[in-house]
């Protein structure tokens, strides 16, 4: 029987500013040390990456709290797999068609009404089987953000990214998703992601098995600005729900609908040989845009003040 690894008391970490080139050198140096020294006791320091500033330095927090070596090496592996998927997406016909569809359906006025994207149940990105759906779905969500951002009439206002999934791991998913994209994913615990949704939110919800959209229909008056979801989340038991006035179906009556399969020129059956799961989920998606979105241009501040008044009145 092997001896248990002794518990170590966490201590306060250190912070330092690095340029990107020096950061990469430090990362390589750390990974080399992990491979040679960290494996001796299965413990190693953990790196948490911060954001770049306009001059391109990066603030690095290097806590001395030990974490399992395997977790540190997972970050490197998952980061590389995500980068591989980003390259595949960037060169795909699917990307070009999705971007064109979004530009056609939004335009500057509607895109300017969106200030955040909330992703619900996209899954973790640590899959060892090379099944790429969760990774591609996060890349897709980032593409949606970038496209809408480019359309906005005031590009200085950034669209924030939030994600909620119980399978996220703080030692891997949170680190990689926080550093892989220009605008990082802010990982939220349940139900904080749902509570972020308001009238200026685009919600992305793909192949989840919980009634998350139904919850949103109950708690967000008039509904979010837009929803991207697979048809299975909306069409299941439609004939039953319609008879009892289901709140989600009632809400969606005020939305326009566009199917991704029409933009792609493909159905999910056309991806039958896609064993990696890279794109087979895309044709199942629908884009729902609130019909009054363009008319609501310039009302963000009024909505925020009204929401604040409602909260104060309820408290």
Automatic annotation (TrEMBL):
Domain of life (superkingdom): Eukaryota
InterPro entries according to UniProt: SRR1-like (IPR012942)
Domain SRR1-like: 105-231
Region named Disordered: 295-315
Protein's name according to its UniProt entry: SRR1-like domain-containing protein
Species of provenance: Lophiostoma macrostomum CBS 122681
